[in-house]
Amino acid sequence: MPGTMITMPLARREELEAGYHVLWFDAPEPIEAQAGQFAMVRAADWGSTPLLPRPMSLLTAGREPSVLIKVVGEGTRLMGGAAVGNPYTFLAPLGTPWRVPEPNEETLLVAGGVGVAPLIYLARELRGAGLARERIHVLYGGRTVRDLPLSEQLDELGRLRVTTEDGSRGTEGRVTLVVAEELERRRADGIATRVYTCGPHGMMAAVAKLAADHGFPCEASLEAPMGCGYGVCLGCAVSKSEGGYLYCCVDGPCVDAATIDWTGRVF
Ligand SMILES: Cc1cc2nc3c(=O)[nH]c(=O)nc-3n(C[C@H](O)[C@H](O)[C@H](O)COP(=O)(O)OP(=O)(O)OC[C@H]3O[C@@H](n4cnc5c(N)ncnc54)[C@H](O)[C@@H]3O)c2cc1C
Ligand code: FES
Q1: Fewer Cβ atoms within 10 Å of its own Cβ: the N or the C terminal residue of the chain?
Q2: Using one digit for the tens of pLDDT, what is the confidence trace for 255-264?
Q3: Ligand 1 centroid, distance to 228 Cα (angstroms)
Q4: CA atoms within 13 A on the CB side of 158
Q5: What is the pLDDT of residue 17?
Q6: Closest residue by Cα to residue 176 from 214, 152, 205
Q7: Does the beta carbon of 234 lie inside 6 Å of ligand 2?
Q8: What are the structural domain ranges in the chain?
């Protein structure tokens, strides 16, 4: 089994708006992870329901690993109500990390809602590796102003532009509108750029197509429903552009977006 199973207490939980929470844990030993990797997360007191751990991108690792969650069902509802001291089990780190940009490339991060977590980790690592804030461009979209959790962190790490579908913050409309503008400008100016995206499937499919149409490499972090998280249950199959499937937990979650058949199995 890849990754290490660690049981640790919840150290802190911060409730953000609109069903988003950040959970920090007190790890007995550091989790050594790379940007884009994830954990299979489960509380020790869940009993038999929900039975399976839930995949969550690592927002931070080390001695104080954390995750950003959006409440969508039973597992995330329980996480959103977790109390300090509740023991949780992490199997981590799992999956493929983000590919690093080439030295000549700027980065364009495109986030949607809770998909922001692995991109914050990436931006932090890029800054730590010496990439200037001016070379990390972030486009972050949400339905409303309440669906842009942790945007202040991205603002510190890179040059942030936000969009909301109802116009309650930033540019009104979907984030893909400004992605198209930005890629058009970058192509015209000949700026080598690597695109990184994580968010709803439809958003990532649109970003992958825009990047390909403009001739830019694009990395996507896939979010398929998972059972085991390490390649055994085959429950996380995603259609490949060349035919057949890859398994999100071991071949992903971070993949070259061009290798995915975005019209295939939708998760
Ligand atoms: C690699 C990876 C990283 C992830 N990172 C995060 C993260 O950082 N924060 C976060 O909040 N969520 C993340 N997710 C999604 C998260 O795992 C699911 O939202 C969670 O498992 C739902 O569990 P639940 O018991 O609350 O909901 P369930 O009762 O299992 O499902 C409730 C509803 O959510 C839908 N759903 C379940 N899983 C997914 C999914 N993967 N994508 C879209 N819809 C889904 C179901 O179809 C259903 O409609 C990630 C998923 C993967 C694969
Ligand atoms: S989640 Fe079991 S094989 Fe991927």
Answers
A1: N
A2: 999 999 999 7
A3: 14
A4: 30
A5: 84
A6: 205
A7: yes
A8: 4-94, 106-221
> Which residue out of 1, 40, 56, 230 has the highest number of ligand 2 atoms within 8 Å of its CB and is therefore the one to mutate?
230
Q: Is any atom of ligand 1 closer than 6 Å to the C-beta of 76? A: yes
Q: Is 88 left (phi over 0), alpha (psi -120 to 50) or beta?
A: beta
> What's the token pair of residue 138?
């972030």
Res 245 pLDDT > 80: yes
Report the pLDDT averaged over residues 7-17. 96
153 DSSP 8-state letter = H
Query: In the chain, what are the helix, strand and coil shares in percent, each to the nearest 5?
Result: 30, 35, 40
Query: Topology of domain 106-221, per CATH?
Result: Rossmann fold (3.40.50)
SS3 210: helix
Superfamily of domain 4-94: Translation factors (2.40.30.10)
**pLDDT per position as a tens digit, 194-228:** 999 999 999 999 999 999 999 999 999 999 999 99
What pLDDT was estimated at residue 99?
Answer: 96
Helix or strand (DSSP H, E) at 179: helix 175-189
CA–CA separation, 201 vs 220, rounded Å? 10
Q: Is 267 in the pocket of ligand 1 (CB under 6 A)?
A: yes
42 CA distance to ligand 1 centroid (A)?
13
Q: What is the ipTM, given to two decimal places? A: 0.95
3-state secondary structure of 50: coil
Neighbours of 223 (CB within 10 A): 23
Other CB atoms within 10 Å distance of the CB of residue 56 = 24
Index of the ligand 2 atom closest to the CA of residue 232: 3
